[in-house]
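Friendly challenge for the regulars: who can give me the structure tokens for this chain first? No prize, just bragging rights.
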Amino acid sequence: MTDQRRVIARVLSESADHPDVEEVFARASKVDSNISIATVYRTVRLFEEAGILERHDFGDGRARYEERSERHHDHLIDVKSGHVIEFSSADIEKLQETVARELGYRLVDHRLELYAVKIDQEEEA
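First reply, four minutes later:
Bragging rights claimed.
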């Protein structure tokens, strides 16, 4: 692993949000000004192929990334601000299992993304 890849890996692991490649580049280039956007694109693709990163498309036209986690979680996306909130719900997990079973399936994986508008913002629109 090159020093530049280490910087990119550190930027991603320290991200509390779900940055896109340009955001990763901006953060990484503050640490090492020699990092190019092409290096970030290649490294993100490599990490995704290795199963280190998970790629998301939250409907805003850009791929966003997060470290793959052992802890399952879903996402709620504020469509006005783009803010992404991670959450877990035992009730939702149970319901998904029930739906799959009622349809004659055993659920092996899923991804849940909720797109929402904050209630106080909705009234302003």
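The chain has a mean pLDDT of 90. Residues 5 and 43 are 6 Å apart (CA to CA). Your move, everyone else.
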